[in-house]
Write a structure and sequence with these properties.
Muramoyl-pentapeptide Carboxypeptidase, domain 2, 4 strands
Length: 208
């Protein structure tokens, strides 16, 4: 019995590390890192700084997400064959949700209102807005709602035939971020692209 618990704990630790930190690529409040490339970079004269050398080719946003997700999608599929897909999805949802709660707590000192929380959704030039096609449905003091009709992360997971993993790693985790920021901030949602719906209807409410 003790051995079983140890194995489950090890698998859960692996999952937490395998999926990207704050796995909600659609709605994470972090900036995309510099473009990646598979071309070799020329090292600087001092080898200590060769990892800082600039790459010589840019990639698209979709390619960046493919590079980010496709490797661990393969790893998770292998793990699903070992422990069962249903169990894997359950573990992914729990791990990704908890990671976003932690992220929300880290951001809680910066986000004190719904207005501040919604800024990356409003800003057309933000990395968040560049990753989705969205329409703002409501924007008031206590409620903010958007309708997302296209999402680069959904495209990547769909093309990898892994929408169930995408929902577990990305979309389900969306509920954790508001909780970590403030217990009064709630996400209300009935549809997601990852689940095959025509849109994601994200509605955020800051309760009084």
């Amino acid at each position: 019995m003790k051995k079983s618990k140890k194995v489950n704990s090890s698998r859960r630790d692996f999952i937490t590390k395998a999926i990207p930190g704050c796995a909600l690529s659609c709605f994470a409040f972090h900036h995309l890192v510099a473009s990646e490339t598979f071309n070799d970079a020329l090292p600087l004269q001092d080898d200590r700084y060769k990892f800082e050398a600039q790459m010589d080719r840019e990639i698209t946003l979709k390619q960046w997400h493919q590079n980010r997700h496709n490797k661990y999608i393969g790893i998770l599929n292998e793990l699903g064959e070992e422990i069962g897909k249903e169990k894997l999805i359950e573990m992914l949802q729990k791990a990704s949700y908890e990671e976003n709660v932690k992220l929300g707590k880290q951001l809680s000192n910066q986000i004190k209102s719904l207005n501040v929380f919604a800024n990356p959704f409003r800003n057309e030039s933000s990395n968040l807005s560049k990753s989705i096609v969205r329409e703002i449905v409501e924007d008031t003091k206590n409620a903010f709602e958007i309708r997302v009709t296209d999402c680069v992360t959904e495209v990547v997971f769909r093309e990898a035939n892994a929408l169930d993993l995408g929902y577990a790693c990305v979309c389900y985790a969306d509920y954790g971020l508001p909780e970590g920021i403030n217990p009064k901030l709630k996400l209300i949602r009935t549809k997601t692209l990852m689940q095959g719906h025509d849109c994601c209807n994200h509605r955020y409410v800051w309760e009084k």
